[in-house]
Amino acid sequence: MKESQHRATFGGRISAVLVAAGGAVGLGNIWRFPYVAGDNGGGAFLLIYILCILFLGLPLMIAEFSIGKATHRNAVGAFHLLDRRWSGIGYMGVLSSVLILGFYLVVAGWTAEYMIHSFTSDLVRQTSAEVHRHTFEAFITHPWKPVFYATLFAAATHLIVTLGVKEGIERAAKVMMPLLFLFLIVLSVHSMLLPGGIEGLRFFLTPDFSKVTASSVLTALGQSFFSLSIGLGTMITYASYFTPETSIRHTALHVTLLDTLVALLAGLMIFPAVFSAGIEPAAGPSLVFITLPTIFGSMPLGELWSTIFFLLLVIAALTSTISLHETVTAYLQEEWALSRFAAARCTTLFTALLGALASLSLGVLQEWRIGGLTLFDALDFVTANILLPLGGLLICVFVGWRWKRDEIASQLYAPTGGAHRRPGFSIFRFLVRYFCPVVMLLLFLDNLGWKLF
Ligand code: PFF
Questions:
Q1: HSE on the CB side for 6, CA within 13 Å?
Q2: Which domains does the chain have, with CATH numbers?
């Protein structure tokens, strides 16, 4: 692996954690998690979600990190090196990253527009939820505004990725992740102190198992994968930049903890505010773009809180679009022998175009359907329900059954070795060989419409 010696690496352990956590923490934690939890029994869902993270998400992240760190290659190149016959997993990962970017850029663009409008304060001055709903619908169906913001987001992502792994991606994560935590803590403390906020806390943290169904378990599983960014090679790509001293186990554990902490804090920020305003919590995806702006409108200093909240979303979205972009750029750069600049330019042009079409599919191109869905919904459906669980399943089977036990052990316990004496290693092997593939197969079949429960 001669060329790996010329490859960039992250500065060290903390950088590795911050960059990978930046890839994982995103709109999935702050925009999606609270409403999914709200729809599925609050605290009970949280408990199931944490179990999914521990027994499925964490082992899979360790598996992806091991592949990346062992090979120092992009998602496709890694499998070329380990076993060419499994390269399909890498190609699927690159494809999934492109498709996810297609709709993720659109939602990211909405957050940017809302941030700017909160700042210029005309958003917050509107008072009723009806007016906010109307504003939101008019914006997402507008013929050019959401396209403009999605393109702006693609351009910002492009700029950071072209600056390079160290100067661009690592530096951005080191600035943005601490800011993200700061804003999240400030907002959740403020929200919990609102009158009546305690009711929201109770709703979020008290388990109500009567609302839990088999499908909530599958929802928790899908949410945990999406939130941790696993199943599509992003974590393989990032781990290929780890230094030899970076521990896979510790990094995976820290990234998983941080990602879960952000989802938890997002719940602590959103539910008290929603209850304090006397609004139904199960408000679906519109929770963030309709319910919350309504609540900000009725608060003292609403403009300020609203700006900080949407800035938080912009940061979370940007660290994730960078990770998706890098997965594609690293592939093009290394496998197609392009310069980093050319590889990033191809990725940006293509995904920005896809994003523009996905955005228009909610408005002027609404008639244009794929299997009955708009392009925006089709991209979300195909990636979340098919490509991610399938990618996760195949990565597990590869690491559990194809990769030699000693090779994984040497990745996980380098440089001290001694995997055979560690109970944690046996548990990891059991999870990736048996438990994870079976559960993921069930999830995959269920997503394809084979109702199993
Ligand atoms: N984990 C991101 C989120 O929670 O928003 C979404 C995501 C990013 C999924 C990168 C997959 C990925 F490769």
A1: 3
A2: 13-447 (1.20.1740)
pLDDT digits (tens, 9 = 90+) for 61-76: 999 999 999 999 999 9
Give the position, in ligand 1's atom list, of the atom nearest the Cα of 24.
1
Q: What's the chain's Rg over C-alpha atoms?
A: 21
Pair of tokens at residue 103: 């709709």
Q: Is the CB of 232 under 6 A from ligand 1?
A: yes
Is 0.90 surpassed by the pTM of this model? yes
Distance 317 CA to ligand 1 centre (A): 9
Closest approach atom of ligand 1 to CA 96: 13
Nearest atom, ligand 1, residue 317 CA: 5
**8-state DSSP, 204:** H
For 375-421, write each residue's pLDDT tens digit.
999 998 899 878 988 999 999 999 999 998 888 888 888 766 666 66
Single-letter amino acid, residue 91: Y
Q: What spacing in Å lies between the alpha carbon of 226 and ligand 1's midpoint?
A: 5
Judge if the beta carbon of residue 227 lies within 6 A of ligand 1.
Answer: yes
Mean pLDDT of 34-55: 90
Q: What percent of the chain has pLDDT over 70?
A: 95
66 lines ligand 1 (CB under 6 A): no
pLDDT band at 8 (very low <50, low <70, confident <90, very high): confident
Backbone angles phi, psi at 373, to 5 degrees: -110, 155
Per-residue pLDDT band for 176 (boundaries 50, 70, 90) equals very high
**226 in ligand 1 pocket by Cβ < 6 Å?**
yes
Which tokens is 67 given? 């592949």
Among 324, 382, 386, name the best residue to mutate to test ligand 1's pocket (greatest count of ligand atoms within 8 A of Cβ).
324
Rounded CA-CA distance 26/229 in Å is 9
Distance CA 180, CA 190 (A): 15
